Fold this protein.
Amino acid sequence: MITPGMQAGSQAEKILVAGGYGNVGRIIATSLGEVFPGRVIAAGRNLERAQNFAAKTHGKVLARHLDLSSDVGNALDDVKLAIVCLDQADTRFVEACLQRSIHYTDISADAAFMAQVMALAPGFEHYGATAVLSVGLSPGITNLLVKQASQSLESVDHANIYVILGLGEVHGDASIRWMIRKANQVYEVNWHDTHRQMKSFDSARQTWLASESRNRTFFAFDLPEQHTLPNTLGIPTGNWLAFDSVPMTHLIAFSNRIGLMKLFQRGIRQTLFIHGMQRFRIGSDRFLAEVHVVGQQNGQPLSHWASVGGFGEGRATGLAAAELAKRLYRVAFPPGAYHIEQLVEPESFFEALSAYDLVFKAGSLTDDRTRQIAHP
Ligand SMILES: NC(=O)c1ccc[n+]([C@@H]2O[C@H](COP(=O)([O-])OP(=O)(O)OC[C@H]3O[C@@H](n4cnc5c(N)ncnc54)[C@H](OP(=O)(O)O)[C@@H]3O)[C@@H](O)[C@H]2O)c1
């Protein structure tokens, strides 16, 4: 019988990375293996793949078989912190962690799943463990950019988050499946107490990217910050997406609007689409996330912007998750379930990530240079 505050194994000191040899998971496991050698475990359904990956780390990362969709058995007995790098169908694994007082984080970008984990906050409190969500690039770093840009405004009206992803990057299967699912999503956003119904890629806007001094067209997309930041920071937020190639951004948005993306929702068509995306890459692996927070200072309208840029969105997600995991492993955060912006101060977090060639910038704009496009 496990009682609150007590872990299953008295020597529970391991960090388990579920999906730890996947595209993002391997960045997290490698990064943590450098800091906590011999304490990090890369886990997944294929033990041989886990072992092959672990062997390349020269013993810094260990391997373990684990299937999140079945009983975890004793796979968590020596674990202090679990990091999940795949989309979960339910919260069974999260509950298995909290009942063993294991700290939990994941890189999910699915607002509905995040809400289910947040609903387990009383359980985390009861067992003395902490769950941290919104951990990655978007959500994750973007949540902290909004927090940073809003801090020096007297009052805040709203925020917009603009993300550019590189189509030249090799994305993992789970990330591409997530993108197809979200492209077909109808979602609701709370904007100053009115509920707006949106569909990914259905509305577009042109905006001035202050960090790059140029205009770009973005499309509405179902990313989670617009669902969480109104609750955690009290800021109505919009999420907007583009790809590094301008023609490809418009082609993908058009294909989505005429229903083409629905063809790849599942089955053999989806498998072929994923292979195609991984094989034929167009453009670079450059990414950018820029947030604009609109408010007032000294009675005058003012926007603060903050951005992060670099190469490899998967790598940036892994590095951000690893940085959060280091803190969760070492620091006694309050028990419960939180989004990153509720526990972490942006400045020190960004300083730590700057060591990995992620470039952070910030500034102010006195006018709103955004133009809504009715029918792109
Ligand atoms: N927050 C952000 O900014 C952000 C950015 C990028 C991606 N993501 C999210 O990150 C996740 C991972 O993306 P990725 O590109 O790394 O995908 P990936 O390369 O396909 O990795 C998924 C990993 O999970 C393992 N796995 C799958 N099902 C499992 C199960 N039932 N039990 C245990 N392990 C299982 C896979 O190995 P086996 O199949 O061998 O088990 C694989 O190692 C996605 O959910 C994506 O949405 C978030």
Summary: The longest strand covers residues 286-297. The chain has two domains: 14-134+316-344, 137-313+354-373.
